[in-house]
Amino acid sequence: MFYDLNVPWTANDTGLPRTLNFLYELGYSVVALNYILIGKLPNELSCAIPNPLPYKDLPSKLEIRRRITVTLTDSLQNARLNALAAQYDILALRPTDEKTLQLACGSLDCDIISLDLSQRFPFHFKIKTLTEAIKLGKKIEICYGHGLLGDSQGRRNLISNVTQIIRATRSRGLIISSEAKGAVACRGPWDAINLSAVWGLGQERGYEAMTKEARNALVGAQLKRSSFRGVINVVHGGEKPAPEVKAGATEKKGEAQKQKGQMTNGQGANGQKRKSDALGSETNDSGSGIPMSKTQMKKRAKKEKMEAESKAAKSTGDAKSN
Amino acid sequence: MVRIKYRYLLVNILYPEQEVQNKKQLPAGSKDSLPYTVQFRRPGPDSLNGKLLSRLIREGVADLFGDYGSGMVSGSLMVKYCSQATSTAIIRVARAHYRMVWAALSFMTSMPVKAGEVPCVFQVVRLSGTIRKSEEEAIRRARLQIRRAQRANGGDADAAVKAVDGAVDAEGDLAMADGIEDFEGEGDESDG
User: Fold this and answer.
1) Which segments carry the region annotation Disordered (chain A) (predicted)?
2) ipTM for the assembly
3) Record: contact A22-B36, CB cut-off 8 A
């Protein structure tokens, strides 16, 4: 199970079915279509990616998810970010400078932090900020697509950024994805793992970044949306299936249950009767409005107790004879 | 006397874009008639041979790793097998430096032909210590691909083929069989 959680989606992209087929051919089994949002959140929050997709010839075994990437700038109001996230399967944030990166790693609730690695950042990635994000279950994304198609400057920036991220995260909590703007920029999963190995991520870590970590991001995002505070999720309500027992057996069982029921009912009724009767008499008395003397109350209580006991003895005797 | 240790990379060449040259010959409607799996794994351009591939790899390594990389690789790099018809190649390289060659292959996006370039993707599908294992894997994969193509084609056309396929194999797995054979080359990662 290999994951590619970043396939850019634009409306009227005729090359998309080809890209998805190519990814399937390369050995990926889950891909996420990525809708990139720049600037203000729209007034009406809705999923921009139609479901089902308007293409006929998609591979049937390829699982397709929907993801949104919000570009973080200083002026962005993030009040409705959660409402937006509910429309998609995954929410990713793209910080543009140090301040927004800190915001994304810390307080903002997201699943993936995706930096544009083809540009040069005028700051160092701090271990503290990135590990904070990883502790919160956010993943940091490495996109190799720009490095393959871009010029050598972009490739240089990509490699430098990736090595810095690997250092700052201690190669944990990373995911590798393509961000391929066409089928040519896609690479096989093992090729991407080798690339990351050349860049300084261990082979095992690279493999995890393609499989386990990506799955964690996806499942975690799903849990956040469907469960109670991301802790408890109802997978199956425990509805009992319709009883399928033979007719004869049910009759026998039914009789047995009837007998049992009588016994328990009788006892239960007695136990309760005593109390309820006592209560009832009290309430009645209080209802008449005349205050009772203590001796009177004691007398009445004793009388009722006696009555109840005699009744109970009778009923148990009946039950025994049964 | 100690044997020099090599790695053999079994490479599949995929062509993600549609063939341009044949556009004139095909009628307009039948452009998409071929299933995708056949389109991607079509025969390469006529100019593809071992020499060209070797030159491309050397250029790629020099581009990515500079003089150091090309110096380290050039002694052992050799294209052992290159088939234009099946778009398959076996490349030999010293065990210590196979990652550089692999990275160079990953960074290739096109192949020169007579008129311009053809976009292509190199996928390493097997990394092994002996050439025999690579050959066996190449044969296994070719079989699977044929089966896959038949299945893709016979979805509505040939029921008989489909039935036979179903009996033989449920779903051919074209992913890398068991990953990378060993991790002995791990110590050389810092080279990159």
Assistant:
1) 238-322
2) 0.78
3) yes
Q: How many CB atoms are closer than 10 A to CB A73? A: 14
Smallest CA–CA distance, residue B120 to chain A, in Å, is 7
Instruction: Please check the confidence at residue A292 and state whether its pLDDT lies above 60.
Output: yes
C-beta of residue B118 within 8 angstroms of C-beta of residue B84:
no
Of B36, B121, B174, the CB nearest to A186: B121
Q: How far is CA A231 from CA A9, A26, A200, A210, A225, in A?
A: 31, 35, 35, 25, 11
* Domain span at A16: 3-226
* pLDDT averaged per 10 residues, chain B (length 192): 87 82 48 72 83 90 90 90 89 90 89 83 90 89 85 57 43 49 38 32
To 10 degrees, the CA torsion angle through A240, A241, A246, A252? 10
B124, B175 contact by CB (below 8 A): no
Do A48 and A113 sit in the same domain of this protein? yes
Q: Which of A2, A194, A200 sits opposite B103 (nearest CB)?
A: A194
> How many angstroms separate the CA of residue A3 from the nearest CA in chain B?
13
Q: How many domains does chain A have?
A: 2
Rounded to the nearest angstrom, the minimum Cα separation between A171 and chain B is 15
The answer to whether A70 and A93 are in contact (CB under 8 A) is: yes
Does B170 contact A at CB distance below 8 Å?
Answer: no
Tell the residue number behind the tokens 């010839």, with chain if given: A57
For chain B, give the longest Cα–Cα distance.
64
Other Cβ atoms within 10 Å of A281 Cβ, number: 15
